Amino acid sequence: MNAPTSIWRQNWTLLAITLLISVSCEKKPSLGDPPTAEDAEFTFMPSASNQNIIEFTANNATLQASWDFGNGATGEGTSATSPYPFAGTYTVTLTVQNSGGSASSSQDVVIIQDDPSLVSSPIFNLLTGGSSKTWAVDSASIGHMGVGPNPSSASFGDYPEYWAAAANDKSGAGIYNDRYTFHLQDYSFDHVTNGDIYVNAASAGNAPFTDTASCIVGDFTASTPNAMGETWTLNQGADTSITLSGNAMVGFWTGVQTYKIVSIDSNEIFLRYEDSQDASLAWYIRLVPEGFVSDPGPPAATYALPIDFEAIQPTFTTFGNSTFGIVSNPDATGANTSANVLETVHGNETWAGLLVNLDAKLDFGTETTIKLMVWAPDTGTFRLKLEDQAAPTQFVEMDQYVTVAQTWTELTFDLTGTGTLYDRLVIFPGWNVPNAGTFYVDNIKQE
pLDDT (tens digit, 9 = 90+) per residue, 86-144? Predict the structure, then answer.
């Protein structure tokens, strides 16, 4: 019994030694030497044209370099320039890096006197009013918030062609009570959240907030403290944009903090920004000075039930990248032989659909159902939503299942006992399915 045990132990010891030698001799990948403190040093001097414009040069031109100019602006590259409109001492930090690591160094730049000419650009004055200016979302106007394709289409340009919010469409979401103040001094920026912000559901885990709650007008409302004393950087070029620091943001949070200025004047800023979770989308927000009352534009057209798309052909508003059109009935047989019907191609969002505003509130005291005809490419859920335009937080949603595909089917939604009166009708053909195909809808009525 002892001999086999001894042999086993000897063999195991030899195997362990062999493995140890093999592992210890394995060549480890090299990341290269990290930058040294000397690599991170830099020089600076005033430009020949202006003592308040400083030119910076990194000692090592072979490394990746990023700058914090101490005035709210940042830069990239081993040579960089930054303006300093106001007198003061600014701590400038250069960070260089390679595959082996990074190193940083800082120096103070002393500016002796102000140079107002460096902030005389019309955009600086429009943003700050020459000193400081507070902006808010233009909630009273149609299209104050919206979404379109990224890149913008050649037909529409920078415009929310997929969906644009109606006036006060997102009341209670945490967006209309936010305030954004641009200060000219030190390019300071204050974002007063009043406790919450409005968050894209896809970015619920990627935002400066403590927690989220489902929002009764879609997506999420998030508890978020004020972001005071942050900075804004104006990036001027072919596409002039604003970048905010820290936890500051504007409008509907989609995970980004850089906003392209589509247009700006003394009473309006129209911004475009991207979606960190969906590169195919671009979002839009319209700001006005705090307290400014904008022209809401013409009221949206309203219609009465029943809607059969024959003599009166109402316009539906689409969202989620869906389409809308009135076409000849492609299957004028069976349960629906009407001449004209609504056609919609379902967008790529699971919540894609259409809405129409009604000219009177629906009362379900006696007529308790909404009925409609649908031709669906496949079986699945069809959702109906009714809203109060004056109070979008008041709504009711109901689902019906389309059991037979590619034939006209009547769906009935029972609204017995509904206390609130509604004057907006929203439909979601192919609910909860992206790119669900082409649907036809007809004969929407209350009975």
Answer: 899 999 999 999 988 999 999 999 999 998 777 777 888 899 998 899 999 999 988 89
pTM for this entry: 0.59
Distances (CA, A) of 356 to 386, 412, 416, 423, 435: 10, 18, 22, 9, 21
What count of other Cβ atoms lies within 10 Å of the Cβ of residue 214? 9
How many CB atoms are closer than 10 A to CB 345?
A: 18
Q: Alpha-carbon distance 326 to 316, whole Å?
A: 10
> Tokens 């394709």 map to which residue?
149
Q: What are the φ and ψ backbone dihedral angles of 432, each rounded to 5 degrees?
A: 70, 20
**Token pair recorded at residue 334:** 């069976």
Across 3-12, 24-33, 376-385, least confident range: 3-12
Strand segments, DSSP code E, in 248-352 are 258-265, 268-274, 281-289, 317-319, 325-328, 340-345
Domain 121-289 has CATH 2.40.128.280: yes
One of 2.60.40.10, 3.20.20.150, 1.10.3720.10, 1.20.80.10 is the CATH number of 42-116, namely 2.60.40.10
